[in-house]
Amino acid sequence: MNVNMIEAAHVARRWSFRCLLFCIIAGMVSGCASAKLKQARRDFYNGNPSQASGVLLDSEDISSRDRLLYFMEKGLILHHSGNFQESIDTLLSASALMKDQEVISAGEQTGSLVTSERITSYKGEYAERLLVHTYLIMNYLMINDHEDALVEAKQALEVYDTYPDACRDDYFTRSLIAHCYEAVGDVNDAYIEYKKLAELMSDPTPVADKLCALGARLGFDDEVAIYEKYLSETERNPAGADAPAELIVFISQGRSPIKIPENIVLPPSIRFSFSTYKDRSGSFFPPTVRTSGLSGPADMIATDVGGVLKASLKERLAQIIAKETARVVAKESIAHNIDDPLLEILVRVVFFIMEEPDTRSWQTLPAYLAMVRIPLQPGSHHIMISGANGGGGTVSIPEFEITPGRQYYYYSVRNNSRLKSF
Amino acid sequence: MFRNPIGKSIFFVCAMTAVFIMTGCSATTRDISPDEAIHYDEGYDFTDKHAIVSSLVESLLNKPPLVTRYDRPVIIVYNVANRTSEHIETDGITDDIRQQILQSGKARFVNKVQRDNIEKETSYQYGGNVAAETRLQRARQVGAEYLISGTLRSIKKKQPKQFRLTKKTLQYYSLTLELTDLQTGLIEWTDNVEIVRESSKPFIGW
């Protein structure tokens, strides 16, 4: 063996070692989930939202790749702690970050081709991006800021327009959007959104009374006649038809599904990995409302959050398969080009282990979101909601008085956290 | 490691490019005139506020009824409703409008924002601590003759999906302002300013 060949072999070994080191570090980094996020989720589900938000004090504690998840989890936890303004600030940061992430990072994408999807910044599933605006709308409504709620409603509409198939079944958010238009007195746009909702739902009964009331104000008599058919005789002339106020209850039930890893292995060392959603909650438990008599019949619109998340992942399927195939090809070509057989095996093993799917997701989301609307007559109200938590318990909304000039009252319920805006 | 030396060369080229990019980036600051037109994206910014306010105030001062009034009528300013898809503090617009009209000397304004504080101060003066001869007199506030209100609207259009390296967005803003005679309920003056801006953003960055 001449000197040149020995030298070349040394150079090759040195580069192989560097490459391996890079892969191992990248693998370790990608395997490290943000421990504080896990802790916060655990505290939240143990019924300590305040403790959970305390864990997530500084975004710098979390890897920049998981910054969006940090804002999402913290924003939702703060909402259920009753810190609506802080929740708004946090979720607005999430919204701004989502806009920045519209530019694809060439560096991240190239790196992920030889490592794992986990080294890229988390961008959120399409439904999660919509739900950032959903929680912002809820927060603004809880502080009675209808104008800013409408701003977020318009941004949510942009997400619907961008990802129509993935977000189609989120009836809850669309009903919030319709309500925002209604609350600022924009009757025509409110009618349009309620009508879109009626066309999307298999049974438009929950929005039929709104369409009839708003349609009558706009003079759409022919359309009012269509939607009146969905109402019973008592519902056509309900006790709350001329109600000056309305109680709107946001009910969060169960836990959203989480992503789990799935693998397809092809000999000798090719591994296709991807993630799927696994349910953590049972079916939706429709809550029932008991009132003190001074109110009309309640209407409810619910969304299967898990279903919308799954639709979002399915929408990205072609993109995921293309990226996964490109990664397998890139890794194979690198391993195939290595001279040293022992080193080639080592590199293949590292590549195989590193091929972990991206299972990051917004885990504090509920499995179901429901909006209950109760028309209220002037006077004092004591309202009970059975089954709001998905079980047999009853949520008792503290007695409250209708204030002249105030039209909407809001209440948010999730397990032990019950928050009111009055 | 590589059978083909091209792989190693590519690595070195990438590394050198990264070094050049990073050495080119350093933090700088500079003062900018508030009148200078600067837009980082298609969104509403302070330059738009200047343009909108100047144009509308000029129209208000040079058209009836204010152009024919020399007795400085009293005006009250209500909020400009934000109907855009951005969180915009419209108080900044109304503050600037009030300031420019006041500086023109053509009208006076009721301080609506300070009403609670005026009430507090009045109550304090009548609470027993203030000498009777220096107390302000009750029921001497001036009622407004006109009301200024308005609506800020926006329409955003994104370029349809197709193969391209940049994404274009068209943003339209419109601010309509109205002067209403509080006695008759008639709109005595109205005007609007429109801004249309196209921006382009790359799909791929570092």
Structure commentary:
The complex is a heterodimer of chains A (422) and B (206). Chain A has 422 residues and is an alpha+beta fold. In chain A, 53% of the residues lie in helices and 17% in strands. In chain A, a hairpin with a 2-residue loop joins strand 10 (408-414) and strand 11 (417-420). In chain A, helix 3 runs antiparallel to helix 4 (67-81), helix 7 (126-142) runs antiparallel to helix 8 and helix 7 (126-142) runs parallel beside helix 10 (171-183). Chain B has a domain at 54-111 and 142-202: 3-Layer(aba) Sandwich (Rossmann fold), CATH 3.40.50.10610. Chain B contains 4 helices and 6 strands, in the order ααβαβαββββ. Chain B has a 5-stranded mixed beta sheet with strand order 2-1-3-4-5, covered by helices on one side. The two termini of chain B are 27 Å apart. The model of chain B has no long low-confidence stretch (mean pLDDT 86). Chains A and B meet through helix 1, strand 1 and helix 8 of A and strand 1 and strand 6 of B. Strand 1 (104-105) of chain A pairs parallel with strand 6 (204-205) of chain B, so a sheet runs across the interface.
Topology, pairings included?
The complex is a heterodimer of chains A (422) and B (206).
Chain A (H helix, E strand, L loop, with lengths): L2 H29 L3 H11 L3 H7 L11 H15 L2 H17 L3 E2 H9 L11 H17 L3 H17 L1 H4 L3 H13 L3 H14 L4 H14 L2 H8 L4 H4 L8 E9 L4 E9 L3 E9 L9 E3 L8 E6 H11 L1 H20 L4 H14 L13 E9 L3 E7 L7 E8 L6 E7 L2 E4 L2
Parallel strand pairs in A: 2-10
Antiparallel strand pairs in A: 2-7, 3-4, 5-8, 6-7, 8-9, 10-11
Helix pairs in contact in A: 1-17, 2-3, 2-4, 3-4, 4-5, 5-7, 7-8, 7-10, 8-10, 10-11, 11-12, 12-13, 16-17
Chain B lengths: L4 H20 L21 H16 L12 E10 L7 H14 L3 E2 L5 H11 L20 E13 L7 E16 L5 E16 L1 E2 L1
Parallel strand pairs in B: 1-2, 1-3
Antiparallel strand pairs in B: 3-4, 4-5
